[in-house]
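To: structure desk
From: M.T.
Subject: fold request, one chain
Message: Could you run this one when you get a chance? Sequence is below, nothing fancy, just the single chain.
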Amino acid sequence: MELRSLKDMKIPLYGEHVLAYFFVFAAVNALLAYSQVSLEGKLWVSLLGLVIPFFSAFLTLPAKIKEKVPVYSVETFTTPGVIWAWVAFMALAVRLGQTHVPGYWPVPDEGYSFYLSHSLEQKWVWRIFWSQTQIPSGFYDLLGVFYNFIPPSLFSICLFPALFSIFTLVPVYFGWRGFFSSSFRMILFFLISFNFGFLYTGRFCLYPVLVLFWTVLALALLTSWHEKKTHYGGRKWGLALGVVTGAGFFIGITWPVVALAVLLVVSGEHPFFREFLKRIKAEWLFWVSIVGLALLFVVLAFQSNYGGHIREEWALRKGMDWQKQFLDTVSNFTGLFWGCNVQNSYGPVWGGVLNPLLGSFFFVGVLKCFELRKILWIRWLMISFFLMMVPGLITKNYDLFRVVQVFPLLLLITAFGVQTVLLSVLKTKSQKFVFLVLILSVGLDFRHLWITYHPSTPTAYSGAPSREEFSRAYEILEVKNHELGPGYLLFDLHPTTGNQTLTLATYPFSGTCNPKIPVVQLKWVALIEDYNYLPFLAKRFTKAQWFKLFPEGAKDNLAGNVWLLGLLPIDSFDPKTLERWIRADKAFRDLIWLSVNTVGNRNRDELFRGLAGLYPAVQGDPLLESLYWEMVFDFHSWENIYGDKNTAVHYPAGFSAIQNALRNGYPTAYFYNELGGFLALQKDYLRARQAFLKAIHSKVNYTSAEYNLKALEQTTGLP
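Reply: Done. Structure tokens follow.
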């Protein structure tokens, strides 16, 4: 038997075996997304199951387009109104269902969204950029308006993004009516209704849900403008497109790539200068609106020193970790199909944004796009896809939401794949099989979404209470509210700024934050503090109830923050002390608000001036003094690690803060442990040892003092 030469070997024609290629892609995607195969094994699977089949299909694509009608214009099945209504109803039900997920607790970033926006409900503040990350104001402005109608709560923080997730479906239905066939639009509408990426984005009260809606709206308007540009009515669509595209700069940091994709269409049809000038004259409403809004954004950005966070996240810099950056960059692509480099960020946790079945449809769709590449808008689609991936590729620390604007194009290409497979099985009348595959795909996405609501690992300790601790605290506080009504919830009387979700959850019965609650209704006080304060607070407030807030099974002497919830009757206080605590809570809250809105690389003198001015409000009260000096210590420690790193200033200031806390406040194990660390750095080993021993022998010790003492003795040889 003679071996056939490579020239004689025939590659299976892709056009005749579309369904077979689909199954190969689906099997490989499932293996890559769900299996525990080693990295080397997955690379071999990718090569043999994806790369080689994909290029073999690419090599057998026809040189010329065979279809007289493009795939996106073909009717592959009938779409009666009842089908549209059923899909829309189910999409609506799923999104509203996300507002009532058992056991759900908001992520810390959602607490920040509330923290920054709820003040707008009471007094409007004109800011163009919010938080340390300098997020454009559009999302927070809309959330502040929303809170005027539906006050902050666990329900409203879920309802707001759910509404925008619902609004996203409207331009999908109306925007592409004249451009795509009814069956193709139904496929796209179905995919966007139940895809994990859209549902996952819609579960967070964060600005990406608005970016996603705005992107879909801009693309729908772009299509409508393109269809009607030769008519007088096209100018109205041009104005709408220009306003939406220009306003997008005030919506999200990544918007410039979407605006560039829109400009590629509006200006790209006439590349020569004279023709371009004619296009500007014909579409002057579009250009005036988008240029005017873009210039306004640039001026305001310049005045606000915009760009600090972008520079911090820029990946291509001296001293970057190339290996980690490679994993982060690759994750932006792999996260769409098989999973990502899991870290402290947003992203898929069970496969990718597309499940293995939709991923297979996507690869079939990519091949169809290559086949139709001579069509101008298909070229735009492929270019825009990679353009919208740029924000994730050029920044460090993978975050799925940096490429959220690519989701509509991702599913548009996937719809190409579904339509192509449907066309390939028309002769065999196997369309029902394809529909069953799509339904199975919905099941996979729902399971993936459910897993994101209930992660398998508890939140790590990070200086702020975890979701498990806050969830337990909320259950206790809710019972207290049912018994006695609202109370003074002094949750800003602790120095951490890391998690405001409990303040959000308890807003309906918090007399501290909610101005609509009459003072006469407030019968009790609640506060959350480091558990090391318990001996001092229990002695001072004998009528109080105290609850330990760490997850079940956690051991005593846990090194890290363990949190304490205190419920104190009003009669535990004399009126002056209570009034002072309330004023101090407000002062701490204002300072935290300023800290949250101070960009990390900017001069923080205003913050430290505010910190110094706060001292008279706490002076003389041992708890307030302790919390104040702990905050001073935390702010200076942050500067040493992340800020200006001027250790000559911040190291002595931090050391002095710990000494003042021990002198004027409650001498807890936490302060003794930190004092021991400072003394060890000063090589005062005997006094450092004494400080660690005082922490260890405190009535309550949830610190790392025991570990630090052993390390000190091993290093110095002290007995």
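Reply (cont.): The chain has a mean pLDDT of 85. Let me know if you need anything else for the meeting.
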